[in-house]
Specification:
Number of strands: 0
Helix content: over 70%
Radius of gyration: 14 Å
Shape: globular
Strand content: under 5%
Largest sheet: none
Structural class: mainly alpha
């Protein structure tokens, strides 16, 4: 897939979203995981030829993004354990 990686997009949102820390106080990481995750899945769907209206799938995208975020977190934890 072309474009920027998920970590770069996350960093760009952090840097350029005015007032993010205040608007999402205490929930910034969760917000970023959901927002970037939904965009990632949406791009994958479009790249695979699946064309649907965003409004019809946004709640499913959220669930998928949350599942991916949990999996990434588990993978990161596994890497930390094996590195120690």
């Amino acid at each position: 897939m072309n474009g920027y990686g998920i970590d770069i997009v996350r960093q760009l949102i952090m840097e350029h979203s005015t007032g993010l820390q205040d608007r999402k106080k205490g929930h910034v990481e969760d917000y970023l995981a959901r927002t970037v995750g939904k965009a990632e899945i949406w791009v994958e769907m479009l790249a695979s030829g699946v064309f649907v209206e965003y409004e019809k799938v946004k709640h499913k995208l959220l669930r998928l993004a949350q599942e991916r975020a949990r999996e990434r977190e588990r993978e990161g934890n596994r890497r930390q354990l094996t590195a120690e």
